[in-house]
Predict the structure.
Amino acid sequence: MKILDATTIIAIFNEIDYLELIDKIRRLGHDLAVLSHVMESELLDGTTLRGIKKYVDDKKIHVIKNNTIDEIKEFRKDFPGLGLGECDSMLSYQKLKESENSVYCILDDAKARHKAGELRIKFTGLIGLLGMMRDKSILTNGEVRVIVERLRDSDFRLPEGVVI
């Protein structure tokens, strides 16, 4: 399964500070991909970008470029209010779903999740991914609690009352 992601990888480096999570996600058999648009944007500070590049160099995270900036902007016209990263993920999903066995988007933004549902895009959020990993015994309940607490203490947009 290929997971198209932006915010989860950034959260792993910035908010969670739990880099082992990348290897644990890969133990699920997932191919973790960050979109080139994110790698080229100002979303990443120097430390985060260097950290992600190390995982790219080690082939633990793949950078994919399926869309030009013009294609992303054209797609975004139909979905005002969504970020370029979410639009890039959803557009990439639509292109990859024909050629890949299984593709998933990790979307945490409520508007993006609503639009993805309308477009029949398979998605989950970071919390859903953590729950999946806990259910498969890749993460313990204690690890999930620690990660969720770190997210609550950060700038990550976590809805109130989230329980997994």
